[in-house]
Amino acid sequence: MHFESPEKTSRPQALQEDEYFLYLVERAVDCLDLQRSSPPDQLGRIQESVFRPDAVPTELPAFRATQFPTAVCWNGWMVKRLTDLLGDQLETRLIWSEDPTLTPHPNPWGF
Asked: What global pTM score does this model have?
């Protein structure tokens, strides 16, 4: 099992079949638009997230919103990378996009 800090690597390398890669997402960013996002439920989940585009850390593979620090938000380029590596073993759910033709998942945190 590999444990890497975000400072050491931004993208996973090719892994052997029996290897695992852990990416610890520690960075919390104040990027939610609180006026346009839904209020948190009793568990702190924000059902409809709207981000401030200028504040989203697109250079990071993943981040946490300061208003919902238990959730991990993956940037699109990293979701593509993970999907390429894992295929149908990975479930992805869109929570927000600047692209108006894309529709966020209606229940992004329900599994």
From this structure: 0.78
